[in-house]
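[Meeting: bench + compute handoff]

Bench side (C.D.) handed over the final construct sequence. Compute side (W.E.) agreed to return the predicted structure before the next meeting so the bench team could plan truncations. Sequence as handed over:
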Amino acid sequence: MKHIGTLARAAIVLATLFWGTSFVIIKDAVDLISPNYLMALRFTGAFILLSVIFRKRLCAVDGKMILQGAIIGVFLYLAYIFQTYGIMDTTPGKNAFLTAFYCVLVPFLAWAAKGARPDRFNLIAAVMCIAGIGLISLNGDFTIGKGDFLTLVGGFFFACHMVAVSKFGDGRDPIVITILQFAAAAVCFWITSLITDGAPQAVGADVLPAVIYLCLFCTAAALLLQNFGQKYTSPSAAALLLSLESVFGTAFSAFMGREDFTVRMICGFVMIFLAIVVSETKLSFFRKREKIQN
């Protein structure tokens, strides 16, 4: 059982590594292809792949599940469209960390949707996160850049998406709900692409590897790794490991030479990461250590 727990945590870390690398991949790809078209291909490919792998599970789909999956998928679409347009006017590292603020926002949206009041750790984390966002995003005249603002809006919709999954996915097969939301997001992106970009564009050899990587590793494989990992990992440990997405995103961006770090930005990154840790774990590891010592 201990061996399975180790594999589960490794699976979550690998999923966050895939997501972390996606920020630079998307940043480069949107210079070659429409953002809407890129996301349409990404979610269509992931939908087809998972539908083939888990086709037997889809036999249990009913009208209510389709509606629930569609609602979740619309939030997923809104999250990714703002995040993707945001990355066009900011760096991959900033995009990664500003998106991550959804982790802190979720308890407050859940309060509005389900009546679950945030605790003191959520409030402390919110203050820390706002301070971190200010350090990363605010210019000298206290304005915020377009890319950073769009990224924050995307983070808000990622939080909405998580609350929607919690509300509509309770008691449902998570794989089936995910397949349905991928389908809904793909339809939304195809419609948006046709309206804004016209006829579908040819996918050149220079962007095809990015599309395949996003479909296969950053969407389909990452989902399966996350589902496996969370099944055999405690919620607090899983939440902490999932927050590594922003760390990997910044690290990979720096490795690729896409970041010009300042002390202020680094302080902001650290502040947001600590806010996520406080919000998601409630610092439970300290309390466990105190019990062991006593």
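W.E. noted at the follow-up: The chain is about 80% helix and 0% strand. C.D. will use this when planning the next construct.
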